[in-house]
Every structure is written in structure tokens, then in C-alpha cells.
Amino acid sequence: MERPGRLPPLSALRMFEAAARLGSFSRAADELFVTHGAVSHQIRALEEQLGFPLFLRQGRQVSLTPAGVELLQGANAALRQLSDTVSALRRRMNRNRLSVSTMPSFAGRWLAPRIGDFIDRHPDAEVNVTATNELADFARDAVDVCVRWGPGGYSGVRVELLMEDELFPVLSPSLVANRRIVEPADLAGLPLLRSDGEDWLPWFRAAGLNWPEPSTGLMISDSALVVQAAIEGRGVALARRSLAALALRAGKLVRPFMIGIPAAHAPHSESGCSFDYPADFDARPRWHYWIVLPERQADTPLLTDFLAWLRAEVAADLAAPLCPQGGPVPLVLSAPQAPRAD
Asked: Rounded to two decimals, what is the model's pTM?
């Protein structure tokens, strides 16, 4: 094995690679969790050590010199290989450890109530679930698998469709004391809970209602909290099936209508990305749940078991009825009669 030649500091090369790849010192600082000034200082020091410029600076804009382009190619390849090696070692040395990254909404209302079954099957395993809306860096974060909510099209990773979803109104039986909910127009006068990006207007149209998008009332950024607010009787939620299913089966919520719409987009905070949406709902991309895995790493036996368990749980969830005892969706809701006083 040959001794490597003289190299600049690894920290400087990392900051250069990020800034060159992203085309921005600020974006590199965000990715590496350092300040803009730290990136600028390290790259200046790297250029002085090398004796030639790597960036052309024009005001706040930067572009690579020919030498910068060449160094980026080598630095990116070397850092990726080093990252892959470290990640593979971590996985081999911690074969009984599983790290899962997913959104807080999915973690809280879908995964957490079910994950105990997987842990019972693997009592010697350590299962770490990170609930975050940030996209994971598999190497830096030591994450084995992600479950993401979005339109797909992720690059540089392995992607598998996990579950499609739909949106429909749900509400607590306590919200409609002595009130009949038979048709969509009967929602008039009830508080409609709103979630950023999951608009009511497409459902109104599907239900034949010429109503505008609600502009008052409670707005919640997290889809799981919208479901919780509905359970507490705060209003009617336009909920994802995946997040409301367990509460529907437990009788904490009811679905008064069979009218549902595809999930075409969701809050930006849950996707970890930012997208521009067409004004026309039908032209928007459909959003689904995706399994996301590192591109160049073999799955450990524990991860393979988890993926098989996850797919089976999703299949069982989609096959199970949403109402208690498998009965029909209740279309008429009324409060229980108070006992008569003798």
C-alpha cells in the first residue's frame, strides 16, 4: 500500500467540494452546519496553500475555474468513496442496530403504534427512529432507511413505492351532538381544520360543493396534529387515510362520506423539499410514501427483515376496513340519547 502524497486539510477539501458542487458558499455552509464565513475562510486558505484560484468571484456570485472543476471531480470521488467505506464499516460493526428516518406525522400516527411488533421479533436489536422533516444524509447521519412523503423522483438513492394515500373528511362523534351528517353540504357551519398544502377546495369539487377554500379557523402545519385536533373535537379534518386509519378503527373518528381525493401535495415541511405547484389540482404530481435506501450499500439482514415487515404492515393496513367490526362507513351521526330521569 502506497503512502498518499501531501494533501490539504480534509476540512478544507470538504468545504470546497460542497461549495463547488452546490455552486454556493451559503448552501455549502447550510449542508455542513457551519457559517458562511467559515466556508469562505477555508476555501481562501486552500487556494493560498495550492497557489492558484479555485473560484472566480464576481460580487456575491462564484464560479469554478478550470482547476476548480478538475479538483471537484477528484475531491467528490474521493470523499464519496471514503464516506461509503465508513458507512459500510458502521453497518457491519453494528449489525443489530437499525436507524430509520421518517416524518414526525408518519412516525407518530403510523409507525410508532406498530413498531413494537417488529421489536418483539428482534429482541436483541436496537431500533432508532428519527422523526424529522429533513432529508437524511445516509453517510453523515448513519441512517439505514428513510420513509419519505413526496412526489418521488429522488436521485442518487434507491427508491421503492411504499404506499399511496388519499384525503377525506373525518371528525369526532362528539363534534356533531344531535346533528345529522348525511351529505357533504351538511358540513356547513362546522369548523374545518386546515393543513398547509392539503387544501379543501379539490375535495369540495369532488363532493359537488361550490364552496371556496376556507380562510379562517385553525391552521396546523403538521398533518398528524390535524388528525389529533379532529379527535379532540376541534373540527373536521381533511385527513390522510394513513394517519387517520387507527383512530377510525378505534371509533375515535368517523368518516361520514366515501368521497376521497388523491393526495396531490402536502406541506413543504414534511417533504423536506420545495416544489412549485400548478394552480390546477389535476395537474399536480401525486404524493406517496417511499422507501429510500443508500444507493451503493448492501442491506443488512436486520434491514432486510425490517423492509419485509414494513411492506407486510402496509399491505395489512390497506386491506383492513376503516370502521369498527368491519361495518359500513357511518353516514348519519347523532349524539347518544341522555338517560331519562324518572
From this structure: 0.70
